[in-house]
Each structure stands twice: as structure tokens, then as C-alpha cells.
Amino acid sequence: MRLDKFIANFTLYSRKEVKKLIRAKRITVNDSIASRPEMQVDEEADTISLDGQWIGYEPYIYYLLNKPQNCLSTTRPGPTAIVTDFLPANEVEIYQPFPVGRLDKDTEGLLLLTNDGDFAHDLLSPKKLVSKEYYAEIEGIVTEEDVKAFAKGLTIDQGDHCAPSQLDILATDPAKNRSEITVTLTEGKYHQVKRMFQAVGKEVIYLQRFRIGSLYLPEELELGQTFKLLPEEAQLALKNETK
């Protein structure tokens, strides 16, 4: 790759600005001052620096976001906060990451953002059957009959059929008519968890996703905070857990 193209790709400098940096002798390649913008560099093997600071080759980025409520899973700016608002602005501009799938506006928890299209395709592919686990607080008492109905596969509104899912009851409070549950899905239908509980006569009042595949939401990660993943850490999302 041309030196000026490499630096423009992985910094906020334009190629015109990079040429000025080269003329000012601020760019080095393998500790030697670069003199030509058209110089060919090996982006994976050569060490390229600006003012002594290494410019790393990073074709793909992976971020784990603890998504807060009142935030849209989109990259399109609008009156409401969007998920890329929580990433470093320079990386958003350089890499243009996007959310892998979506969480509803009022749903919290684990959301992945990346610029790796193949990774996103694999994670969302129905053939991969990637499991996603949610914690929810429910208006109503969740019963063993509901557990069986979820395991069998529910038909929800408009005749939409859901694949079998695992529903676990954590606690029930008859006095408050409330339940706490976890549910594990391998699909991602629109408002699926909410619609599934509506199908059994109950309402989701709080929803959080805390696991995708074998990748968990870190307990210490506050709402609105992000954690940059190594490629091998991101791959955990594609490896289902066995319970």
C-alpha cells in the first residue's frame, strides 16, 4: 500500500495533509525518515510512526457496549442517542463501525459493534444458531407451563412462529405479581422476548441481554461504557455454550 494512503486510512489526516507531514520529515518507516508519499509499505510488517508514535494496522475493530436505555441501535444520527455515540469519535470516523443486530430502544445490555462484515454475517446467520441470553423482569407469575411452552416453540402475534427457547425462572413474587427469569434464544425476531411473553399473557417490564454465544457482558462495565475486544475475544460470540 502507498504510504500516504496507509496513513490516511488509519488516522484522521487526509492524503494532502499526509504529504505535508512527509515533507516536514515527521513520518518514519522502520525508523528511517520517509521522503516519498508513494513509497510502498507492508502494512502488517513495517513500523510506521508519526512524531515517534506508532500508527497501527488494524483492519477490523470490535467493541462490546453495555447499551443503555433510550438509545437506538443505528449509525444514523437523529434526535435520540445512537450506539456509536459511545465509541471513540476518531475510531467511528476512521473505521465506520456498525451494530451487529439490534437491541430495542428500552432494552439494555450487550451489543457488539464492528466494521467486520463477515463476522457480523456469521453472528446474525440463522444457520449458525448463535444463542443469546437475556435477563428479564416480568409483570405476572411465570409458571412451569410457560417454561414448557417456550421449550416447545411459541406462536406469537400474526402467526409468527418462534423456535424452541430455554426459559428459566429465577424468582417469583405473588404479592407483587412479578417474576424474574432468564431466556435463551437462537433467533432475533423484532421485539421477540416481549412478544413471546405477551403470547402467554404476561408483560416484560425490564430486559437486559447479558450473553451472546460464549461472550458475557462484564459485570464491572457500566451502562454506556464500552470495552474494546481483541479479535479472538470477539470470536467467543460465535461459540455457543453448553448448559
UniProtKB/TrEMBL annotation:
Residues 1-59 form the RNA-binding S4 domain. GO terms for cellular component: cytosol. Pfam families: PseudoU_synth_2, S4. The keyword Isomerase applies. SMART domains: S4 (SM00363). InterPro entries: PsdUridine_s_RsuA/RluB/E/F_cat, PsdUridine_synth_cat_dom_sf, PsdUridine_synth_RsuA/RluA, PsdUridine_synth_RsuA/RluB/E/F, PsdUridine_synth_RsuA/RluB_CS, RsuA_PseudoU_synthase, S4_RNA-bd, S4_RNA-bd_sf. Its EC number is 5.4.99.-. One of its GO terms (biological process) is enzyme-directed rRNA pseudouridine synthesis. It comes from the Bacteria. PROSITE patterns: PSI_RSU, S4. SUPFAM superfamilies: Alpha-L RNA-binding motif, Pseudouridine synthase. One of its GO terms (molecular function) is rRNA pseudouridine synthase activity. Keywords: Isomerase, RNA-binding. PANTHER family: PSEUDOURIDINE SYNTHASE, PSEUDOURIDINE SYNTHASE FAMILY PROTEIN-RELATED. Belongs to the pseudouridine synthase RsuA family. This is Pseudouridine synthase. It comes from Aerococcus urinae.
